[in-house]
């Protein structure tokens, strides 16, 4: 029998229990993974996939192993492995097998949120330690400052869209909002009772995305080819260990991200920068 590195075969979890865990994780992650709705997604290429080809080389200096030989080193961006641990009560899983519909998966839900925040933050703001330059770090555009009144938000978005168009970046455009900005936008109405969110969608020609991990908001072109996400292993639930009371699990993935067109996005800063 081939054993997957996730070691699910060793967990004291029934087939129905695994279906429950996978479904819960999928539902929670689909909502929170805002970055994936704004970038080009490639893969998944598998757990063994280790690096993204950058299509560039650098000269190797110093003596070569043989006379008359020159060398260049291929440029790659290593994938980062990300894991968020959680635990589930064995009794809760047994109760699910008995037909319980209200299984407590609170710890799984929190792990899903945290790993989504990590991915969103890496894509939108970068992760220096693993070599990822995020969207707001790469853009040459000056950030557009916050405004105290969210009814003025369309002016900020229109200014961002205009700036992108002026440098030849076409739409449609999307707006990724941190949780605070998203709540304020979707709850706001303009004079006459017109929903602010509908006004913004017309300006953008694209979606408004809830993206935990975003600081402020980001206007990005969705034309394609500008923001490149590569998945090695896509988000999966794996087994670590168990005791008499709990099964200890984790959500894991590997990925890289790079910005191909830095000028295709503008940061709308919030009170937190």
From TrEMBL:
Zinc-finger in keyword set: no
Pfam families the UniProt entry points to: Linocin_M18
Assigned protein family: Belongs to the encapsulin family. Family 1 subfamily.
Predominant location category: other
UniProt protein name: Type 1 encapsulin shell protein
UniProt keyword Ribonucleoprotein present: no
Cellular location(s): Encapsulin nanocompartment
Key words, A-Z: Encapsulin nanocompartment
Organism per entry: Arthrobacter sulfonylureivorans
Source superkingdom: Bacteria
């Amino acid at each position: 029998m081939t054993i997957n590195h996730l070691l699910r075969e060793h967990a004291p979890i029934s087939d129905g229990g695994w279906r429950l865990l996978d479904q819960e994780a999928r539902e929670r992650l689909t909502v929170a993974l805002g970055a994936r709705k704004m970038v080009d997604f490639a893969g998944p290429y598998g757990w063994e996939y280790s690096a993204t080809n950058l299509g560039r080389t650098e000269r190797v200096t110093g003596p070569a192993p043989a006379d008359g030989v020159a060398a260049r080193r291929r440029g790659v961006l290593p994938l980062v492995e990300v894991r968020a641990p959680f635990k589930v009560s064995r009794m809760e899983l047994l109760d699910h097998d008995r037909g319980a519909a209200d299984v407590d998966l609170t710890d799984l839900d929190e792990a899903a949120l945290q790993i989504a925040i990590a991915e969103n933050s890496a894509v939108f703001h970068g992760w220096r330690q693993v070599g990822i330059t995020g969207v707001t770090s790469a853009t040459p555009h000056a950030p557009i400052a916050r405004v105290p009144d969210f009814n003025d938000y369309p002016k900020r978005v229109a200014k961002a869209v205009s700036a992108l168009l002026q440098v030849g970046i076409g739409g449609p455009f999307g707006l990724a909002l941190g949780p605070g900005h998203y709540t304020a936008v979707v709850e706001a109405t303009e004079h006459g009772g017109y929903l602010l969110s509908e006004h913004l969608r017309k300006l953008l020609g694209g979606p408004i995305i809830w993206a935990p991990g975003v600081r402020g908001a980001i206007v990005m072109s969705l034309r394609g080819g500008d923001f490149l996400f590569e998945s090695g292993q896509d988000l999966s639930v794996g087994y670590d260990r168990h005791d008499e009371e709990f099964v200890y699990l984790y959500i894991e993935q590997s990925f890289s991200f790079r910005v191909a067109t830095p000028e295709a996005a503008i940061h709308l800063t919030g009170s937190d920068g």
